[in-house]
Amino acid sequence: MAAVVATNLKRGQCISYKGETGQVLGLEHRTPGKGNALIMATIRSFQTGKTKDIRFASSDKVEIVQSDRVKLEYSYSDQSGYHFMDETYDTITLQAEVLGGNEDLLVDAIQVEVLYVDSKLVAVEFPSNIEMEVTESAPGVKGDTATSATKEAKLETGLLVQVPLFINPGDKVKISSEDKKYAGRV
């Protein structure tokens, strides 16, 4: 493991702190009126899965953990798990627990990034926005774009989201992978 000064931390890096390992999700450099600069890091623990804010002094040393990222393409799912293909066309099967409740974001040929720390799979990262087709919703009415009213729509994976009134079955929409909410029409 290599140590870096807290000011050199980058979003996405894996670090070791207080006996835990985690991934840096966000960084904020703060300079209070009095005293030394601080680095506020938002970190997701691999052991607990919880997110917490950690404050580092700008001169603190932080241990960087060796990690590997592998891009996988979703193929299909069955009772044994969710099957992905890597760039060598080898099939990798992941269980629902590893996906962290995001199975309803898996559309055909979606590219995900799998994070390995010490050869152990610790996280699956989805693209920020995912395109899906609306399969069921109440029909839209011409002129329903003036208000911010919404209706429920069922997407191709079975995910239910609130969409604007002008969205119809067959339309393609963008869904945010972070909060599983409507992000726009394609």
Q: What can you tell me about this protein's structure?
A:
- This protein is mainly beta and 186 residues long.
- A hairpin with a 7-residue loop joins strand 3 and strand 4.
- Helix content is 2%, strand content 54%.
- The strands form three sheets. It has a six-stranded antiparallel β-sheet with strand order 1-6-2-3-4-5, with no helix packed on it. A five-stranded antiparallel β-sheet has the order 9-8-7-10-11.
- The chain has three domains: 2-64, SH3 type barrels, CATH 2.30.30; 67-125, Beta Barrel (OB fold (Dihydrolipoamide Acetyltransferase, E2P)); 129-185, OB fold (Dihydrolipoamide Acetyltransferase, E2P), CATH 2.40.50.
- The model has no long low-confidence stretch (mean pLDDT 89).
- It contains one helix and 16 strands.
